[in-house]
Amino acid sequence: MQGPSHGGPGKRIRSRTLVLFLGIFLGLGVPAVPAQETTSVAGSSGEYAFLAGYGASHPGWGETRTRVETVEVIGRWGYFLSDERGKGWYRGRHELLVELPLHLAVDPQDRIMTGAYLNGSWKFTGLKEKRLYPYVFAGGGVLYADLGLPSMGSRLVFCYQGGAGLQYLIRRDLAFTAESRYHHISNAGTASPNEPLNSTKILVGISLFR
Questions:
Q1: Which of 10, 80, 154, 204 has CA 20 to 30 A from 192's CA?
Q2: Domains in the chain, please, with CATH?
Q3: Do residues 14 and 7 touch, judged by C-beta distance below 8 A?
Q4: Cis peptide leading into 31, omega within 30 of 0?
Q5: For residue range 119-150, what is the model confidence (pLDDT) as tens digits?
Q6: Mean of the pLDDT values across residues 176-205?
């Protein structure tokens, strides 16, 4: 019996992901706008974002026993629920985030997870003179998880997650986005066994405000 290959599709996917990240960084090489013009986030009704990155589960974190590495591709739509609230550095806006994720498992094998997430977010606008917009978010959703792991008990799994990110405005309506999130999935006791995957994910991308 042959052992697992270390140079197969998973390695090619990782290489293509690095090329994608490089393309994102090169594509963002546009002149920054003057600070006095950076008012679009405070006045916009929402945003569209594309994020890509890497994730991994951590054996020993809670009841997680399996190491799963993923390449992440996430489309996001955001809708602001309020005008600016508060004062000083914590001034910000409430935002609803709808995400369509594609998690490509490249280790231990090439499989996918996909579904939908609904998150609540607070976007800080108190640093807009520096073109910086930090944010925090939390939420969850439902996924179809075809990971080939009998220990998960079901392909229908549920997620809760939370994280923080930072947006840097490079144009009046365009921002570079970087974020980190904690991500949990399990079948929520609907099947047995029920091994959860507790993961961390690092993402970068672009956000377009409207």
A1: 10
A2: 42-209 (2.40.160.20)
A3: no
A4: no
A5: 999 999 999 999 999 999 999 999 999 999 99
A6: 98
User: pTM above the 0.90 mark?
Assistant: no
Question: For 59-72, how does the pLDDT look when each residue is reduced to its tens digit (9 = 90+)?
Answer: 999 999 999 999 99
| Structure-token match 């609907």, residue found | 190
Token digits for 30?
A: 């546009």
Q: How far is residue 94 CA from its own chain's centroid?
A: 18
**Backbone CA torsion sign across 95, 125, 55, 59:** negative
Which residues are 106's β-sheet partners?
none
- The predicted structure's pLDDT at residue 89: 85
pLDDT beyond 50 at 38: no
Per-residue three-class SS string for the chain: CCCCCCCCHHHHHHHHHHHHHHHHHHHCCCCCCCHHHCCHHHHCCEEEEEEEEEEEECCCCCCCCCCCEEEEEEEEEEEECCCCECCHHHCEEEEEEEEEEEEEEEECCCEEEEEEEEEEEEEECCCHHHCEEEEEEEEEEEEEEECCCHHHCCCEEEEEEEEEEEEEEEECCEEEEEEEEEEEEECCCCCCCCCCEEEEEEEEEEEEEC
Torsion sign (Cα): 144, 14, 62, 203: negative
Look at residues 104, 149, 101, 74 and name the one whose alpha carbon lies nearest to residue 13: 104
C-beta separation of 55 from 183 below 8 A: yes
The single residue listed with the structure tokens 């994102």 is 24
